[in-house]
Amino acid sequence: xxxxxxxHYNVIKVINxxxxxxxxxxxSAILGLVELLESQNPTPDPTLNLEKVGGCWKLVYSxxxxxxxxxxxxxxxxxxxxxxxxxxxxxxxxxxxxxINFNVRGLNLLNGQLTIEASFKTASKxxxxxxxxxxxxxxxxxxxxxxxxxxxxxxxxxPDGWLEITYVDDNMRIGRDDxxxxxxxxxxxxxxx
Length: 193
Known about the structure:
Elements: H1 3-12, H2 24-39, E1 55-62, H3 68-73, E2 80-90, E3 95-104, E4 110-122, E5 127-138, H4 140-146, H5 150-157, E6 161-168, E7 172-177, E8 182-187
Helix pairs in contact: 1-2
Family: Belongs to the PAP/fibrillin family.
Subcellular location: Plastid
Keywords: Plastid, Transit peptide
């Protein structure tokens, strides 16, 4: 990533990856940066170069939001906090594993994670079709906290549909899904699975 892009990249670094909303001025700045990067995509046919897409990625920003009653129902206001979001892409198997980390206050700072597995197949030079396969929450105490609202939790993070890969280089990937959401991820050296 060149210095100019690195400078702009700091615009994206926002609290909780945008999940709990972003002020409209900041959201506009991020959208402007996304469009700038997309116009300079060094990999215009990403599905023909899937080796650039494979590996572990960490979510930096998304337009998916958990606001109002959804946030309250999931306990994300008071005692459950979101940790890092990782995506592991296995190109050879056509699999993507999303790992969402949670911390629970009051339960000896219990850490847990939601893992969502999906398969993908190439649909065009820049698009993949994604099919949800399975999900798990560990440990059981965290599943017990989410059990009543598990369908709501999955509906927020469900990867079913398609994803247009609009930018990818060695360090960053941007995608847009069929619901109009934008995702910005940075390559991670961590191997969360």
